[in-house]
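Got a spare moment? Tell me how you read both lines of this record:
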Amino acid sequence: MRREIVTWNEVNQLIDHLVDQFEHEFEAMVMITRGGIIPGGMLAEALGITHILTAAVDFPAKLESQSAKLLIWPQFLQFPEDDLLVGRRTLVVDDVWG
């Protein structure tokens, strides 16, 4: 696996680069635990998002699915109630998906 070490200044530059690519403003954010908490917090600060929620997911069949070469769908362990998200343009943040 390739590893790259970046400074906090470089992380801030990457966040700024990402923010510039959004075509819409967001009214809410759902951060997927654990990996989405740090980048989500940084993006929320940069975008001025104050309505921040979390969701927890698990990939329980990861090893079995990898051996069968199947797509892995997450199992939601916790997700915000619908009324907290309805009508809000929401950004979902995680470190990886799949």
Q: What stands out?
A: The chain has one domain: 8-93. The longest helix spans residues 8-19.
